């Protein structure tokens, strides 16, 4: 079918958005393509439509497990066959997906970049008919980007196992000029590749920075002043629940969302917000990726962002319907002071990273040279207690190890335990006496859950223990053992997540942090924080001009909507003694805008 037919049949749209059709055509013509579309610009359609229109399967490389699962579910609802190979699948399961792709008619296959490092997986991909490769969040490929992941640097290895004319489509919502060049080079774009870039300017979006002492009161004021759907972003999970509770106490229908919730809880909360049952969602940055709700009128940040790229992406979730919308940041003076203070923004040292690396394998009881592709239920709280380090510090270092390709960490918890048996029962009974607890547990599982031999099923260990006449801890111990011996896949409930080891354990003397790369990352981290601090403190330039300049786009005309432009217009209209005083304020004073019609200034 043609792209227009696919768009109408599966998505119900009569026409493409600007640049979408050109990007789709470039991909269908077999050209390597880079697409830069701002948040809400419809990036996913740029690879989903040509995937439907092409023979074979499209590989989609994506860094976020939750986003992959959400997109697979959405495509399947539309009648488009899709699958995802993530750390949530065992080796048997992802091999089954690859071996049966033709029979199941899978059109889009989602993969994490870490999975691509598996040589067996690469060999299997070489046997598939690949239409093209789509690299989502392509800025992750660049060390100049705000979310660099070294595993993205290995994507170009697919060039060696796939036909040389396989096209690559790279997509991102934010990229500086350095990142754009790095993407094309790292993916080995062929001569004649095309770059499609839509202006990052959102003329309907008003950016506002307010330096305030009481954020929550100001949040209430903003929500009452701007009707409609809203997102409130913050950095810590616990704070999301507290803010949602506070808003409900003030008569505002609100809920909270973060990656630590179960998949069912996250889906329920997301659906309630999408359908308008919940007006405000208080969330970490785990919320919003891949969610297309056009009528969001307000996005609020209650904490400083780690980079302007992330700010631009999150703020851009407002006003996708191209009607007036607001992005407001409530930042305290203390927040600004902490932004670039090394004592408040600890960057893990090489020794700390190496120490946590060794502690991790000790915690999991993995000997030297072992552990590659083993998967474990993982509690970061228990691990932090084991290392005697703050939980946040452990989390940061685990993410560092993930970016370096040593582990894959999925912090999604489960509401129900899940189990899949692979063995022949008669073979198992030959290894154990009929009276053993192992045989008793397995027999009862097979009686209670017939499907356990064919797929993952939800189980209740307490019921199994009662039927097998053993205690519940023993049931879990047996199922863990079967999982470790390869006889089963067992995912217990109420874990904080799962951790997959991507490489065997290295000796302390061998495990090294490259000093040049470490220094580069640390300097980039600090430079991004300095850019954020400068953006928050700026009082002499339009917000849009600042953001676009940072992203490599020149704009000289003020937007007319941001806090700076409105304040300038107000002062020109009413040149009161107070406003004249502000104009003459010394360079040692920071102008702090607190509300429309109120401009205060403080001594630094």
UniProtKB/TrEMBL annotation:
Domain Helicase C-terminal: 215-384
Alphabetical list of PROSITE patterns matching this protein: HELICASE_ATP_BIND_1, HELICASE_CTER
GO cellular component entries: bacterial nucleoid; cytoplasm; replisome
Any one biological process term the GO annotation gives: DNA recombination
Pfam families referenced in this protein's UniProt entry, alphabetically: DEAD (PF00270), Helicase_C (PF00271), RecQ_Zn_bind (PF16124)
Helicase ATP-binding domain residues: 24-193
MF terms (GO), sorted A to Z: 3'-5' DNA helicase activity; ATP binding; DNA binding; four-way junction helicase activity; hydrolase activity; metal ion binding
Nucleotide-binding recorded as keyword: yes
EC code(s) of this entry: 5.6.2.4
Entry keywords, A to Z: ATP-binding, DNA-binding, Helicase, Hydrolase, Isomerase, Metal-binding, Nucleotide-binding
Recorded catalytic activity of this chain's protein: Couples ATP hydrolysis with the unwinding of duplex DNA by translocating in the 3'-5' direction
Alphabetized InterPro entries for the sequence: DEAD/DEAH_box_helicase_dom, DNA_helicase_ATP-dep_RecQ, Helicase_ATP-bd, Helicase_C-like, P-loop_NTPase, RecQ_Zn-bd, WH-like_DNA-bd_sf
Entries under SMART domains matching the protein: DEXDc, HELICc
Similarity remark: Belongs to the helicase family. RecQ subfamily.
UniProt name for this protein: ATP-dependent DNA helicase RecQ
Taxonomic lineage of the native organism: Bacteria, Pseudomonadati, Bacteroidota, Flavobacteriia, Flavobacteriales
């Amino acid at each position: 079918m043609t792209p227009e037919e696919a768009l109408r049949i599966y998505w119900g749209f009569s026409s493409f958005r600007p640049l979408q059709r050109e990007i789709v055509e470039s991909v269908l013509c077999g050209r390597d393509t880079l697409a830069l579309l701002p948040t809400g610009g419809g990036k996913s359609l740029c690879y989903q439509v040509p995937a439907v229109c092409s023979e074979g399967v499209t590989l989609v490389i994506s860094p976020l497990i939750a986003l992959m699962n959400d997109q697979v579910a959405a495509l399947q609802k539309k009648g488009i066959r899709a699958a995802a190979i993530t750390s949530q699948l065992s080796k048997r399961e992802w091999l089954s997906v690859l071996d049966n792709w033709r029979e199941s008619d899978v059109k889009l296959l989602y993969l994490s970049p870490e999975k691509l490092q598996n040589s067996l997986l690469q060999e299997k991909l070489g046997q598939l008919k690949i239409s093209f490769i789509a690299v989502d969040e392509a800025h992750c490929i660049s060390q100049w980007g705000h979310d660099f992941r070294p595993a993205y640097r290995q994507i170009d290895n697919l060039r060696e196992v796939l036909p040389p004319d396989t096209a690559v489509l790279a997509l991102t919502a934010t990229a500086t000029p350095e990142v754009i060049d790095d993407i094309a080079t790292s993916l080995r774009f062929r001569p004649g590749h095309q770059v499609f870039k839509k202006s990052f300017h959102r003329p309907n979006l008003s950016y506002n920075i307010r330096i305030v002492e009481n954020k929550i009161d100001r949040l209430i004021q903003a929500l009452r002043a701007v009707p409609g759907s809203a997102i409130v972003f913050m950095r810590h999970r616990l704070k999301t629940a507290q803010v949602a509770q506070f808003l409900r106490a003030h008569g505002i229908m609100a809920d909270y969302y973060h990656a630590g919730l179960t998949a069912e809880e996250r889906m329920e909360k997301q659906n309630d917000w999408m359908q308008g049952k919940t007006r405000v969602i208080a969330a970490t940055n785990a919320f919003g990726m891949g969610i297309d709700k056009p009528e969001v009128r307000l996005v609020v940040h209650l904490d400083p962002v780690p980079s302007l790229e992330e700010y631009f992406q999150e703020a851009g979730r407002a006003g996708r319907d191209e009607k007036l919308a607001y992005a407001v940041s409530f930042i305290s003076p203390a927040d600004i002071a902490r932004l670039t203070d090394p004592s408040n923004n600890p960057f893990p040292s090489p020794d700390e990273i190496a120490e946590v690396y060794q502690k991790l394998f000790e915690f999991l009881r993995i000997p030297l040279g072992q552990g590659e592709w083993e998967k474990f239920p993982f509690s970061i709280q228990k691990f932090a207690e084991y290392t005697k380090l703050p939980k946040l510090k452990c989390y940061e270092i685990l993410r560092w190890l993930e970016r370096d390709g040593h582990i894959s960490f999925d912090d999604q918890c489960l509401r129900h335990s899940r189990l899949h048996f692979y063995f022949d029962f008669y073979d198992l009974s030959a290894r154990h006496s009929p009276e053993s607890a192992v045989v008793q547990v397995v027999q009862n599982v097979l009686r209670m859950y017939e499907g356990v031999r064919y797929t993952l099923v939800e189980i209740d260990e307490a019921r199994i223990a009662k039927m097998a006449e053993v205690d519940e801890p023993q049931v879990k111990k047996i199922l863990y053992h079967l999982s470790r011996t390869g006889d089963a896949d067992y995912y217990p409930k109420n874990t904080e997540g799962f951790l997959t080891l991507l490489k065997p354990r290295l000796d302390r003397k061998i495990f090294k942090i490259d000093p040049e790369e470490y220094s580069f990352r640390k300097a980039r981290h600090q430079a991004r924080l300095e850019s954020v601090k400068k953006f928050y403190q700026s009082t002499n330039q339009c917000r849009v001009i600042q953001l676009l300049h940072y992203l490599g786009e020149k704009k000289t005309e003020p937007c007319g909507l941001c806090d700076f432009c409105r304040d300038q217009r107000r002062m020109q209209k009413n040149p009161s003694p107070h406003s004249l005083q502000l104009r003459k304020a010394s360079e040692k004073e920071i102008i702090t805008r607190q509300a429309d019609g109120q401009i205060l200034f403080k001594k630094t």
